[in-house]
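Figure caption, in words: inputs first, then the predicted bound structure.
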Amino acid sequence: MTSNRVVNASPPADLSAAACAAQAQAHCPYSNYAVGAAIRTASGAIYAGCNVENASYPEGTCAEAGAIAAMVLDGEREIVEVVVVTGGSTPGTPCGGCRQRLREFTGPDAVIYATTVDGVELAVTMADLLPASFGPEFLAH
Ligand code: THU
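Bound structure (tetrahydrodeoxyuridine present):
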């Protein structure tokens, strides 16, 4: 955790509230690990998602994926900050797949806040969360 470059900022209250409300809706009977994610876009809009598990385990989806789907459905494409809320004593940072999903819609300076319900916080930039990443600009030709 300390190897991440920590951004000196706390998660915005409105985005945290949206992530917590989403976490409360999580469908996670297999892991019992509820996750909520909330995205703020460049327009100021907020989109939230929760993890949705499945009896066929690999078919479950992450909270970040749900929030991104809601954002795209609404016609938005530019993420400026994200709050992820998990249980446990350590903030659950986005999984590898979700780092790539977020990368699609962020610049390098977008801030991702990982928080626990108990208020433990970690904040990292997208560039630190997924270094040397591949993104849409590689396909621009
Ligand atoms: N999970 C997320 O929702 N987001 C992440 O970035 C990490 C993991 C969920 C997936 C699964 O429902 C549960 O957490 C345990 O892995």
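Residues 28, 31, 33, 35, 51, 53, 60, 62-64, 92, 94-95, 98 surround tetrahydrodeoxyuridine (CB under 6 Å).
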